[in-house]
Amino acid sequence: MDDRGSFTAETMALQRAFESYRPPGLRRFDDPYATAFLRPWLRVLAEAARLPGVRRVATGLYDVVAGPGPRVSGIVRTKVIDDALAEFVGGETQCVLLGAGYDTRAHRLSALAGNTVFEVDHPATQARKRAVLGEGRVTYVPVDFEHDDLVGRLTESGFDTGKPAVFVWEGVTNYLTADAVDTTLAAVRELGGDVIFTYVDVRALHEPSPFPEARRWVRAVARSGEPWTFGLRPTETRQFLADRGFSLEKDLSTFDAGGGSQLYRIAIARRARATHQ
């Protein structure tokens, strides 16, 4: 990513902007900040979507370019995680957004209004985000997941290991190495947190894939300079998490959650509690 903001984070902001301009009774959520993160030509496209007829053309054009799956999967995963956070967060629960990108939950979700929120991401993406949203609502923690000490960075930034915590890891694992995924989960476990995360079915990364949309999707993210490098087989996710100290509570595809693709998945896991004889 170097010194640039993430393009995939920007496309996710565009997807949220499209959804936010749907009628109040139909949209799954409202993100009033999403458009501010877009480069000029994408902002024009998003703003045009305020008009119902144009919105259908704009989202249709996006789906033609990106292929079936990405936009609706992005919208559904946002809604599922929003709802899960509302159930997780309470009292002194800390929320940590890992690889936050242009996530604006700290600013738009009432469930997080009174809670401490940490946003962990590459400093280039954070710099652009701070320029839009400012400093006050969240604590920004610059981290490179492949190289930096997440536990150290968070505790230095005020994370309290004596309080409950939920970690949101949305749209990140598929861009990491297996070692980085392991290291991050170990850090979440050490910090005492539960975790809500997304992942891709590993079969999407190899041909022939059982998912018709996989080839186009995988090639598109590779062309953007942010290729998919990690996935899990859903039938093995429960054991994968158990081996790392977590108990899987829910695991479903965005398709099953409300639309999108079978290859893109959301998992909710609790930190396994020690048992006493």
Automatic annotation (TrEMBL):
Classification via InterPro entries: Ppm1/Ppm2/Tcmp, SAM-dependent_MTases_sf, SAM_mthyl_Trfase_ML2640-like
GO biological process, one term: methylation
Pfam families noted in UniProt: LCM (PF04072)
SUPFAM superfamilies, alphabetized: S-adenosyl-L-methionine-dependent methyltransferases
Enzyme Commission code(s) on record: 2.1.1.-
Entry keyword set: Methyltransferase, S-adenosyl-L-methionine, Transferase
One term of GO molecular function: methyltransferase activity
Physiological role: Exhibits S-adenosyl-L-methionine-dependent methyltransferase activity.
Recorded family membership: Belongs to the UPF0677 family.
Protein name: S-adenosyl-L-methionine-dependent methyltransferase
Highest classification ranks of the organism: Bacteria, Bacillati, Actinomycetota, Actinomycetes, Pseudonocardiales
